[in-house]
Each structure stands twice: as structure tokens, then as C-alpha cells.
Amino acid sequence: MKEKMYFPKNFLWGGATSGPQIEGSFEKPHKNVFDYWYEIEPDKFFNKVGPNVTSDFYHNFKEDLKLIKNIGLNSFRTSIQWSRLIKNFETGEVDEKNAKFYSDVIDEIIKNDMIPIINLHHFDLPVELYEKYNGWESRKVLDMFETFAKKCFELYGDKVKYWTTFNEPIVVVEGQYLYKFHYPCVVDGKRAMQVLYNLNIASAKAIKQFKKSDCFKNGGKIGIILNLTPTYSRSNSEEDIKASNIADDIFNKSFLEPATKGKFTKSLIDLLKENNVFWDSESGDDELLKENTVDFLGINYYFPRRIKAKETPIENEQWLPDNHVDYYDMPNKRMNPYRGWEIYPKAIYDIAINIKENYNNIPWYISENGMGVENEERFLDENGIIQDDYRIEFYEEHLKFLSDGIKDGSNCFGFHCWTPIDCWSWCNAYKNRYGYISVDLETQKRTIKKSGNWIKQFINIH
Ligand code: BG6
User: Fold this and answer.
1) What pLDDT is recorded for position 392?
2) Do the domain assignments include residue 6?
């Protein structure tokens, strides 16, 4: 018999998505970097499907939220698109129609007895802020982000209790400045590290505004969403461990430490200084970081990071993180072949214990976990329902390790799937589907998959 899992009372069972991945770009006053990239290079997107319509949440949100509630979820995360809400980035003047749209969405989430978690940035920098000021490299853009955050708290702080500043900020650094999967596809280690620093400052600035807001005074909480990809060393050799510590410092602790402890690790600072890629800062930044740490963490977990000492020759003339580490292709690892990601559920337990032991057991939740699968129509049964047993198995295994972490004292308050309803996934567009609910792109028809019925039952009995 399976051991009973344990999840505390009032656990947040939910699902996550983001504005740019569901809404469609209808009626936006500005383009974000993905809207623009699709315009100039549609070939970069799977089957040339861009962000114009996505799952058309802009028009369907009432029905969508009802469906999400109907599969038993009690909370829902989405993001406010900066390029949709704000008309004038300098002054923070809003686009009234879109301000009403987000207000209506939040009301509808609450009307469906779900707790809204609202995120402020999900990879969607307005493109003109890149073209005019170099985007996240510029302090001016950080100030504009602070203005945007302040506006969001003013507009919706009376209804939204849980806010997050960024989703996976390290992915912005990786995608825009290291590995070319977000526009403008720059490869520049020094600029990457400046952006890494600036995103931490931007988050702290938003938190500073939050602490001045009525929302905070009325008990609201603010966090950040990090893809804490646990780092596992190939062996216990000194060289492998050194490399895996470097990867951990650059890709995990670079946001985790400032967000929770208000400062960067000394080892990261030393590494960047030794390599002449240390960031520029301004006076007052240290205090800003120290005074504006998060109330909670959202942790996105998909796959582990396996590292070995550098064995391959360094091919870059410039400094890049990969000059220090090689990725270890562990034999016999379990893979999700569609997304190319390793499946390793135990990492969730390791995350839980890491937060408990090294981060003062700060409240946290799994803000994303899920399995993207291609061509799910293969699994349609005679009633037109996708039999996604692989997804159910995936979630059961991950939830088991989460439950173990909670039993061992980790302060986890929720589990959000990625994602309740199939959505658009950046350059992969609709290649891999993640939802409990499918979307037919031709008709926009929604159908609950087998996993959607499963999660409802699972929540009921836990
Ligand atoms: C997370 C992001 O990294 O993973 C989502 O927050 C994303 O935006 C999700 O869609 C799944 O990854 P992908 O690349 O398959 O869409």
C-alpha cells in the first residue's frame, strides 16, 4: 500500500501561468521582447506560432477561471504585463482599458474562490526599453520598473494578498545575455552579470514600494519566484565539487541569497572580481538589498543540474559561466524526451530541506512543476479525453517527495502546477503541452484531461 502523503491545512493547490503566455497581445499599448521578436523572426517559433492569440485568455478568462476552479484548484498565479498595463513608462500612466482588464481578472479569480498570486515580470520586458536604454542594463529601467510595481500595488493591492516581483530572473540573464533563447540574444558574460545584479536591485526596489503600500499594512506578502535547480556534483572529487559550487553560486544563490539574506555570497563576488566581470553598483544599493528581502519564496522545479569539473577546452575569448563548469550527462538518467529535461522527483525533497536548513525555514511553495509532452492527441480516448497517465505519475512522484519534505519540517504552503490550461511556451510555442486542460488551437475549445480529474480527486482526499 502507498504511504499516505501529508499536506498542511489550507495548503494552496493551484496552477501558474503568465500574462504573455495566455492573454494574446490584443489591445496592448506596447510590445514586449517576444511580441517584437516574433514580428522580425517568426521562424524562431515552433510552427511559426507567435504570441498574438496564445490561448486567448483576454477574451475567455471568465470561462477559463471557472474551469480551473472546477478541477478543484484554490489558487491561481498569473502576471501583469508591463507592456499591457502601462502607457507611459516614465510617469506610470496606465492604459485604462487594460487596467480594468486586470481588475476584472483578479475579481473573477476571487469570485471563483481562488487566491490570486500576482507576478510583476515574466520575461516580458517592453522592447522599447531595450531599444532605448539597453533594458535591464540600465538604472533608468530599474526606476521605471519600480514605478510600474508601485502602480500595481495601488491599483490591485486591496484585492491581492500575495505578490511576486519576478519569475525566474536568472532565465532573463541566461536567455538574453548568455544562451540566446530570448531576444536580443546577446552573448556577453560581463553584461550578463550586470543584468543579474540589476534584476536583484529591481526586485528590492519593488519590495521597497510594497512595504510602503496599504497592501503591506493590511497583511499582504511579497516574494520572488526562483527556478532553484538543485546542483548535483558528478562525484565527491575536489574538482567536481568546486565546479558544482560555482554553478550553484551563479545560477541559484545569485538570486536566492539577496532575496532572503539581503546580500550576495562572497564566493560569487570573488569569482566575478577575479575574472574582471564584477558589476557596477550605486551607493545605497547594499542597504536597499538588506532592507528589502522577501516574505516568501516561490520555487519552480523541473529538472536537476548535474555538474562536473571543466574537461572540455574553453572556447570563448570572453568570460562566461561555462568557462568553469561542464554539464554532466549522467548515464541512465530518466528523461522527458519531448522537452529534453531529466526527471528527478527527489530534488523536491532536497529543495525543501535546503530551505529549512539554510534559509531559516522561510515560507515557500512550489510555484511551478509540470511535464510538457508533444502531440498529446495520440492519447485521446473514444470520448475525446486525453489519457495523460504519464503526467499523473509525474505529479504523484513529485508530490510524494514534497510531502516527505513537509513531514520533515519544511515550511511549504502550496503546490502549483505548470499549468492549468495548455499555454504558449515562448519559442516552443504550443509544441509541448503542460495543462490539466487541453486547448484546441483551431477552435480554442477546452477539454479537461484525465489529469484534470485526477488532481481534483487528489486534492479532495488530502
Ligand atoms: C518555466 C517558466 O521556466 O517553465 C514558464 O516560468 C515556462 O514560463 C515553463 O513556460 C515551461 O517551460 P517551457 O520552456 O517548456 O515553456
Assistant:
1) 98
2) no
User: Distance between CA 10 and CA 13 in Å, rounded?
Assistant: 9
**Which of 368, 374, 422 most suits a substitution to test ligand 1, by most atoms within 8 Å of the C-beta?**
368
Helices (H) and strands (E) in the chain, counts: 17, 19
Is the separation of the CB atoms in 452 and 392 below 8 Å? Answer: no
Q: Tell the residue number behind the cell numbers 503568465, with chain if given.
A: 18
Measure 425 CA to ligand 1 centroid, in angstroms: 6
Give yes or no for residue 3 having a pLDDT over 80: no
CATH number reported for the structural domain that contains residue 405 in this entry: 3.20.20.80
CB 223 within 8 A of CB 169: no
Ligand 1 atom 7 nearest Cα:
425
Per the prediction, the chain carries an average pLDDT of: 98
Q: How far apart are CA 439 and CA 376, in angstroms?
A: 11
Does a structural domain hold residue 58? yes
| N-terminal to C-terminal alpha carbon distance within the chain | 16
| pLDDT (mean) for 35-55 | 98
Residues in contact with ligand 1 (CB, 6 Å cut-off): 18, 21, 167-168, 227, 300, 339, 368, 372, 418, 425-426, 428, 432
Give the domain range for residue 414. 12-461
Sign of CA dihedral 158, 160, 164, 168: negative
| Number of domain units in the chain | 1
Strands (E) located in 58-127: 75-79, 86-88, 93-94, 115-119
Measure the CA–CA gap between 376 and 260, rounded to whole angstroms.
40
Q: 157: CA distance to ligand 1 center in Å?
A: 27
5 is a domain residue: no
Report the C-alpha gap between 290 and 283 in whole angstroms: 13
HSE-up of residue 257 (Cα within 13 Å, Cβ side): 17
Region 29-51: mean pLDDT is 98
Compute the distance between CA of residue 424 and CA of residue 432 in angstroms, rounded to an integer: 9
| Structural domain contains residue 4 | no
Give the residue numbers annotated as catalytic, written as ranges.
Answer: 168, 368
For residue 2, pLDDT over 90 is answered with no
